[in-house]
Amino acid sequence: MNTPEKKHPLQKLMDNPWLLLALGVAIPALSYSVWGWIELVLVKPATLP
Amino acid sequence: MNASNPNPPLWKRICDTTGLPVCRDAEFFIKLNAVCAVVFLLVGGLAAIALALTRWQAVHLLPVEWFYRTLTLHGLNMLIFWILFFEVAILYFACTTLLNARLFSRKVAWASFGMMLVGSLMVDGIILVGQADVMMTSYLPLLAHPLFYLGIILVAVGTLTGVFNFFATLWQAKKQRTYEGSVSLVVFGATAAAIIAVVTLLHGAVVMIPTFLHSLGLIAQPDPAWYRLIWWGLGHQSQQVNVCAMVSCWYLIGSITTGAKPLNETVCRGAFVLYILFINIASAHHLLVDPGVGSSWKIWNTSYAMYLAVLASMIHGFTVPASIEVAMRAKGYTKGLFGWLTNAPWRNPAFAGSFLSMCIFGFIGGITGVTLGTQQINIIAHNTLRITGHFHSTVVGGTSLAFMALTYYVVPLLFRKDFVFRPLARIQPYLFAGGIVLVSLGMSFAGSLGVARRSWDIEATGSVHGPSAHLFLAVLGLGGIVAFAALLLFILLTVGTLLFGESNVGRPMADWGTPKTLSTATGHGHGAAAPALAPGAEPAHDTRGTLVLALVFLACFAVYYFANWKALADVWPVR
Predict the structure, then answer these.
(1) From the candidates B179, B182, B280, B287, which should be mutated to test the interface with A, based on the most A CB atoms within 10 A?
(2) B137 domain-assigned
(3) Which chain A residue's Cα is nearest to B293?
(4) What is the pLDDT averaged over residues B544-566?
(5) Structural domain for B396, as ranges
(6) Pick from B457, B553, B524, B493: which is nearest to B65 by CA?
């Protein structure tokens, strides 16, 4: 009797382009863009001497 | 559906050389995008030689306004148009031929191509009439004509539309079960490129739409610091799309020319996953001296997390030559450490171009990239010609050379014409590689002496760089002449083949040369070919030669890295 082979979670991830797309957008968006944007927003305007 | 069906449906044909199915719609758009790519390569190349002969201070060809205009033209044509058109062609090839699938939509492909072409022409036109001397980065508050931004938006949306067509074809192929199990490694690499392209183009939309509206006078000027942050989400990440496409080319060409198979599919795919997750954050390199973002952000994005993407490159840099070594040894080229390498098909321009691309990308581009991306070291290199030296070895010596290498199979297999002037084709990759190495080294050494990038005249502030800088700028200029000659040769060969090449319809393409399996019985063998495997046994991977190459690479890396720390230490002498 053939039982379907159980896939490793990493293999499941690699076979799912939509999940990879979601992670691929989310990680740089959070790590680079959103975090960087927050840093820029928090910069206090320079005061005149 | 079966590729070996003698009567394939009308939407596809069977390749006479590879036996692979070729979707006719995809074939048409691959040709269209590839031809446009080569035309924009020529435009960018003409700009490149003018720039090289201007930065060669003894020649100093262009007047100042034309220098910055040409620099803008060069950057956009080489880094964006040539690369994106070729990448769309690769995506269409990967999702149809390699999956035995039909392109999702011809209309979507037309929409993508139309937007990309109109946008590119708009950008080139507005640059050439002198309304966009803002260079590729167009940092605010520099402001170009609105058509410049609109053109870039059209190219970005057009490419995104092409990427959508790729994903829709993947979805359709899975639904129609045109393939079983996982997609091949090359398709997986193309998928990684497509995912990174989505991130890139979203950043492009976020930054270019408000800038376009500002250029029309409809909104206030966006914050220049914000502009730089988001623009590099477009500018640097677009080069990561190249990396994935280039690595896919390495695997594909290794397989076509030597019969190489990935040593371990899971490891190779895992490396692509690392690209997808972590390579994009490397854009932070460009902001390492920006005051608005803090050290935590800089160090996290350029070191800790980004090194996972560097690990991915090192995995590919090992597995591609290792898989070639295993394939060559299996054919009987087993003599010594490097018998497999010396007997590789070096006269095959696709193999030569691909292997040279790998060496230039790894030994020059990779080592300099990681070093320059270190926050502390960056302070002695930022905005010098060292940076341009780095990315000419990755994007030109790496990606462009790999794409050229692939063209030596794309033209005979899709345009179905055998190459003309084949002896010239065999030397073209060497000429181009040699030229671009000289360009890259000339830039890097001149930059080490403090020569700034994007500067028309290094004498403007007095001769502070010394005669050595002039010597290295001459090396840059001479390398530029050699690389430009090789680029012209490439275009002559491809256009000449399209016009005058002999048709190969109904027969396999003319062979560029692939290594034959040696027989020890005939006395031609180097040594014993790999013995036959017992049923169920795992093949032993003899990769001694590649391991030695990897150790040489790591030694070069260590020496260069520590030399740069020493150079940094010299900036602050302890008295």
Answers:
(1) B280
(2) yes
(3) A39
(4) 96
(5) 354-506
(6) B457
- Quick one: closest CA in B to A44, which residue? B292
Residues 6+ apart with CB under 8 A from B59: B53, B477
Residues in chain B with CB shorter than 8 Å from the CB of A15 are 182-183
3-state secondary structure labels for all residues of B201-229: HHHHHHHHHHHHHHHCCCCCCCCHHHHHH
- How far, in Å, CA of B372 to CA of B269, rounded? 27
The answer to whether the Cβ–Cβ distance between B301 and A10 falls below 8 Å is: no
Neighbours of B123 (CB within 10 A): 26
Last residue of a domain, one of B137, B153, B180: B180
What digits encode the pLDDT tens for the residues B504-519? 999 999 999 989 888 6
- Between the alpha carbon of residue B451 and those of residues B295, B373, B455, B468, B571, the distances in Å are 26, 19, 8, 11, 16
| Element of type H or E holding B276 | helix B265-278
Structure tokens at B528: 């014993």
Instruction: Give pLDDT, residue B460.
Output: 72
Q: Kindly provide the ipTM of the predicted complex, given to two decimals.
A: 0.90
Whether B135 is in a domain gets the answer yes
- Round to whole Å and give the CA distance between B41 and B493: 14
Cα B126 from Cα B115, distance rounded (Å):
16
As a whole number of angstroms, the distance between CA B398 and CA A34 comes to: 31
The residue whose two tokens read 């040369």 is B513
Query: A3: distance to nearest CA of chain B, Å?
Result: 16
In a domain, B142, yes or no: yes
- Which CB contacts under 8 angstroms, 24+ apart, belong to B114-117? B114/B158, B115/B154, B115/B155, B115/B157, B115/B158, B115/B161, B116/B36, B116/B81, B116/B84, B116/B85, B116/B88, B116/B154, B116/B155, B116/B158, B116/B159, B116/B162, B117/B36, B117/B158
Task: Express each pLDDT in B232-260 by its tens digit.
Answer: 999 888 888 889 999 999 999 999 999 99
Quick: pLDDT tens for B51-81.
Answer: 999 999 899 999 999 999 999 999 999 999 9
Whole-angstrom distance between the N-terminal and C-terminal Cα of chain A?
83
Nearest to B482 by CA among B429, B545, B411: B429
- Could you tell me which residues come within 8 angstroms of residue B167 by beta carbon, excluding any fewer than 6 positions away? A17, A21, B194
Asked if residues B436 and B485 have their Cβ atoms less than 8 Å apart, the reply is no
Pick from B160, B276, B307 the residue to mutate for testing the A interface (most A CBs within 10 Å).
Answer: B276
Give the residue on B whose Cα is nearest the Cα of A10. Answer: B270
DSSP B520: G
Averaged confidence pLDDT in chain B: 91
Number of independent structural domains in chain B: 2
> At which of B129, B153, B180 does a domain end?
B180
Question: Can you list the pairs that A19-26 forms with residues at least 24 positions away whose Cβ atoms lie under 8 Å?
Answer: A20/B191, A20/B192, A20/B195, A20/B273, A20/B276, A21/B167, A21/B195, A21/B198, A23/B276, A23/B277, A24/B195, A24/B196, A24/B198, A24/B199, A24/B276, A24/B277, A24/B280, A25/B195, A25/B198, A25/B199, A25/B202
pLDDT of residue B32: 96
Q: Is residue B386 part of a domain?
A: yes
Portion of chain B with pLDDT greater than 90, in percent: 78
| CB atoms A15 and B233 under 8 Å | no
| Tokens representing residue B101 in the block | 């699938």
Cβ contacts of residue B216 below 8 Å, gap of 6+?
B146
